């Protein structure tokens, strides 16, 4: 792989009045990756994207594209293109005119513009709509135009600012798959801003979870999901059973009473207050293996949702864990637990994360 | 390197506050400052100026123009202008309210057409309209003839050359400025609010005073200012509809600049007019700010 | 009781006279309101109708209609002074329109996008003509021209009218610009346009209907304006409005009816056009162009 990252942020900050939207961000995005900036609204992900695109000046630090410092360059002199959240199509131009806009600015020959615009419209499946106005298109079609308009310039990096947020759920799922396919096909680095963790997990090669102007954790989707590095990441990515307590001798004494065996954690000194996190789907309700931590509790609620069933199990007063069971071919209805029953449950020690 | 950063920043182009916008703003602002602000300052300066023997204005510091304003002849005109302007505001409100109310609530799909039918002629030539109005209100014009026919007027009743005529002219000239903000306020008014008022207060009259009127107070206030401003400065209506006994401050100003050739006095009168209007504006702004503060509570 | 109420919430355009109160009694008020409104419209159009009617009068009288004739229109066409005034008015309107639309559109763009202290100062200066009565603007402009030793002429009227019209254009366009999606301009820059190119290639086309409408409106307003022209015009040729003023003041000739009718027809057509322009571009047209909201 090329050693020079496609995008590098070096200590980038953005200050508004007296608060930081982005604080000393360091970030490397490898060329050809689908990279997601994931976080709740106001976490600084869009500001970060805008600084890469050149729409917002960092108050500190530098932005490097393919190794070159572009911090002082305006958007039109950066080899990146953006798909805006509002799509920002030019209403006075037809679809072909919209897609051709960037190529015209660059002075590409007319015949080549026509060819490339045609190819790009085919790629995003808008072949027949070249002479329509944006106002006459559906949301999904507008989204494709915005994508084509950016991609046709063959940028080194494509920035996408929540491009699917305005679409309905079904269309969004479809576009997720399509967007990923297009990215693989064109091989361009995508930087994708989203607040939807499902979206980030399904599409990305790398995810950076942002909170409060900083990156909490970055890594592969598996990494970030399976090994959240902080309480924030654990709770933001999917559902987590988060319990607070105090670590001592391989056990965490929960604030509410019971002690959980978590195994020796060399990095954590005794008496540290920690959070314990277990994913609902990592909890077993039967067939325990040796070495597992096994506890018992009372089923308080059973939530059936088709492929899965969620049990809420009360371990101690005020401490309820949620446990996810697959309704696989082998599971039968009669086997399901019902409310009020006392059950045993457990997990492998490596699935129990202790977060400081 | 880190030490150099603060200096490096000054070279940046400023994507957030691009200088292009300042450059775009500049020509218009310079033009306005050069022509308008400078000329208003000139009026203020000349108000304390003098004239030479030939009547040409000279700069200086002489308060005779300002002092002359205290002359009863002028204070009477100022009082009359204020009276006419206030009366015009009141009449405009009385006319505009039912008209705007009817169109906004009962206009249905003709709403926009009806408002356009009011607005369009008002942007047509003011003088020609006033001239036509003076013909309509003349002694054998259609209005007086109709009034005589139903016995509301006799042969001696006049509208032209009276104060009524001047106010009628001002109302005709500026009533649109009352209708537009009132209509906008009534349009925004939720019909269900009136329905709720009917349930709470019963009668339509009580509903009107307790629900509709308070909800449109800001529109009315805006309308009053928009009518008061031009009415106070008008000199055409007093000339066409009134006579020598009905002159307003605008006529005085016109006279000092065109016939009397007393420019310092004319400038002083202009400043006086501005002062009255500024007081009015200030009162309006204070009022709306108070309303907004109350609305927030 | 409640059964007697009409479902007005679902039918906002209920017939006026048949609205009922909850007491079931036919309400009188709308009928009175409708009558007042009708009377208002009658009085609003009566003067215009009178001027128009008597412009076609075959007699010289301003009160007795003697039959249809185009005599006063012919008189107008052969009146060199009035025709030269018409020419002057057209020139003034055209120049003031071009000047104020260019300056005002640029100012509006700057005001919306520039959030510096200079921007807010410019915003305040822009408002001055709107809260200053025309007579004050007129007096001030005249003093300025005389003060710097410029002889009053058609040119000085043009300058004064531009000054006054800039605010109008700015107010109309400012709300339109504020309603534009700022991401569209960013998209243009993202695709390789400089800031200027983005404004020229994307923002201005998006504003075109509003710019055209405001241009037409300014043309009509300047053409009809009397007070400012009165204070800043030279002797010959005087703008048509000023001519009409003198004619009305010093003994009316029926020719003025013909000129007035033509002016009314012209400006009503222009205002209607200004309202209609946005629709030509497939957008919602409307009165907001007049109020700037």
UniProtKB/TrEMBL annotation, chain A:
Q: Which CDD domains match?
A: ABC_PotA_N (cd03300)
Q: Which UniProt keywords apply?
A: ATP-binding, Cell membrane, Membrane, Nucleotide-binding, Translocase, Transport
Its cellular-component GO annotations read: ATP-binding cassette (ABC) transporter complex
Which EC class is this protein assigned? translocase
A molecular function (GO) held by this record is:
ATP hydrolysis activity
> What InterPro entries does UniProt report for this protein, alphabetically?
AAA+_ATPase (IPR003593), ABC_SmlMolc_Importer (IPR050093), ABC_transporter-like_ATP-bd (IPR003439), ABC_transporter-like_CS (IPR017871), Mo/tungstate-bd_C_term_dom (IPR008995), P-loop_NTPase (IPR027417), PotA-like (IPR005893), PotA_ATP-bd (IPR017879)
Q: Which reaction does it catalyse?
A: ATP + H2O + polyamine-[polyamine-binding protein]Side 1 = ADP + phosphate + polyamineSide 2 + [polyamine-binding protein]Side 1
Q: Which domain of life is it from?
A: Bacteria
Cite the EC number. 7.6.2.11
Keyword flag Oxidoreductase = no
Question: Where does the ABC transporter domain lie?
Answer: 7-237
**Xref: SMART domains:** AAA
Q: Relate the assembly described in the record.
A: The complex is composed of two ATP-binding proteins (PotA), two transmembrane proteins (PotB and PotC) and a solute-binding protein (PotD).
What does it do?
Part of the ABC transporter complex PotABCD involved in spermidine/putrescine import. Responsible for energy coupling to the transport system.
Q: Which family does it belong to?
A: Belongs to the ABC transporter superfamily. Spermidine/putrescine importer (TC 3.A.1.11.1) family.
Q: What is this protein called?
A: Spermidine/putrescine import ATP-binding protein PotA
Gene encoding it? potA
Automatic annotation (TrEMBL), chain B:
Which source organism does the UniProt entry give?
Streptomyces monashensis
Query: Known PANTHER family for this protein?
Result: INNER MEMBRANE ABC TRANSPORTER PERMEASE PROTEIN YDCU-RELATED, INNER MEMBRANE ABC TRANSPORTER PERMEASE PROTEIN YDCU-RELATED-RELATED
Keyword Membrane part of the UniProt annotation: yes
Which compartments is it annotated to reside in?
Answer: Cell membrane
**Assigned protein family:** Belongs to the binding-protein-dependent transport system permease family. CysTW subfamily.
Q: Which residue numbers delimit the ABC transmembrane type-1 domain?
A: 78-284
Describe its membrane topology.
Multi-pass membrane protein
Kindly report the protein's main subcellular placement as a broad class. membrane
Tell me, which GO biological process terms does this entry list? transmembrane transport
Sorted alphabetically, the keyword list is: Cell membrane, Membrane, Transmembrane, Transmembrane helix, Transport
Q: Which GO terms describe its cellular component?
A: plasma membrane
- Name the record gives this protein: ABC transporter permease
- State the InterPro entries in the record: MetI-like (IPR000515), MetI-like_sf (IPR035906)
> Where exactly are the transmembrane stretches of this chain?
21-48, 82-106, 113-132, 164-186, 207-231, 265-285
